[in-house]
Amino acid sequence: MPHLDAVVVGAGFSGLYMMHRLRQRGLNAQGFEAGKDVGGTWYWNRYPGARCDSESLSYSYSFLPELDQAWHWPERYSEQPEILKYIEHVATTQDLRRHFRFQTRVTTADFDETADLWTIGTDQGDQVTARFLIMATGCLSQPNWPAIEGLADFKGETFHTGLWPHEGVDFAGKQVAVIGTGSSAIQSIPRIAKQADVLFVFQRTANHCVPAQNHAMDPEAERAYKADYMAKREQARHSFAGDVVPELYITIMDLSDDELERELDRTWGQGGFYTQYPYTDIFTDKRANDRVMAYSHRHIRSRVNDPGVADLLCAKDHPIGTKRLCADTLYFETYNEDNVHLVDLNDTPIRAIREDGIATSDRAYEVDAIVYATGFNAMTGALTSVDIRGCDGRVLKEVWNDGPVNYLGLGVHGFPNLFTVTGPGSPSVLTNMVSSIEQHVEWVDRCMTWLGDRGATRIEADQEAQGRWVGYLNDSANATIFPLANSWYIGANIPGKARVFLPYVNGLKTYRDECDAVAEDGYAGFAIA
Ligand code: FAD
Ligand code: NAP
Fold it and tell me: Is the whole model's pTM more than 0.85, yes or no?
């Protein structure tokens, strides 16, 4: 059984950087990746229109300054092929692929308390032992297939946005159904509508969505950014959102109606998350949020011709931004096309999938293809789908049955030498994720070095420190209006999943300071042996 210093699971942004750091230190590390190649999110999510909504100039690694200078992103928010090309380039130039075994899913991990070693098993029959197990398995990597009766009976083509065929899909001449209206649907619907003969969109909950305002990369913006790259990266690292974006400085409730209208015209013009970055009270004062929502609804109504359809597309059940905000390119205008039909599942719920299409409570929709844009078992799904067993036979999935518990989002009591990159309880999905990934990878690397220097073979989160951390997470989330939404942030998209707010809400800067303070205090809150 090969003995390793570390096993890294996943070859997306997280796993690749983790491997790079471990190899730089001369450690013997093995990676496993379920996909055929590197890329993670950007390997799997190849649906038409898939792109980032973090600015491309900052949605990339910061540890390769020469590449930062040389790389050209063609658009403000680049499409999936461009992001994948970048990740592949990093893997090739840093020679990372040879440390990963691809098409290999880690299925089991057992901790041996006497030897302080993990034994890791895969679906290909591998068995390796390693001192450290680093789960870089992604927050949005476990696709969610909805529990709809008859799903397997459909005789046409079935797709999930998070598992899109690499050869692409041609919808020309077809009748197509899309189920879901989250970010993936909002990006893919305008593209699918252009090809398909007929498109039915099945909407259960309307999502808040603002224009992305994507455009070709502005050469002057690129030049200015690159000229000041290192400072910008440093700023992002120590910012709330992990990005070089406006920090909180405007209080909505201080503005008159006219002032607010002008202010929102300005940020809607910038697009995407710029419509929420500057506002101090958008997530803490429902009245402020309601005013922004009213503006957003007016905006949508101005883009959709049919007032009834426009009304259905206006999200009303949750404050704006408390489900992840969607950024669109001509999404609402798509409903002005004759071949596009919105089906309101609140009025007419789906009863079943049939051989030839979808049956709702009032009619049957015959289609050639169904696209499930139904999201992910977010933040915990990829972790709990591995049979991870720690001390005294504890099983991670069972320990987390009532919601994930951990310390700093990085370590779990009862599971020594296990690190979770962008684990629940860390800022991850509420930030530019590459910044949060780098912060975690660097913290883990520093911790492993510190342990190695002392000849320590074991680190484990204290139960008491973990309890305090979980309490702090909950208190922080409850001071915001995020928990008001039935979002995947709170596990509400997966039937039976515990309702616990999963990400850390106080921003990357504060979080980084807290993690650094723990490290500087000799990893206070962890038991070291
Ligand atoms: P992932 O990229 O998810 O990689 C995890 C890898 O682990 C996957 O390849 C998976 O196959 C593998 N894996 C999981 N379990 C196992 C196992 N048991 N065995 C072997 N392999 C396993 N974030 C932003 O900050 N900005 C954006 O604009 C943005 N856009 C996004 C758009 C889409 C369509 C999606 C789905 C997500 C987006 N995100 C965005 C979030 C995105 O997931 C992160 O930014 C980032 O790519 C995550 O990298 P990662 O390496 O942590 O995880
Ligand atoms: P999502 O936001 O979870 O949306 C899933 C959609 O499917 C929702 O509209 C949901 O409706 C619907 N749905 C789920 N089960 C259903 C059922 N049984 N019947 C009918 N409808 C059902 O998933 P996503 O769109 O894939 O996005 C997930 C996350 O990935 C995003 O929030 C974002 O973080 C990331 N992402 C980012 C981008 C980007 O722009 N950069 C693009 C894509 C994804 P309900 O709301 O009613 O549950």
Answer: yes
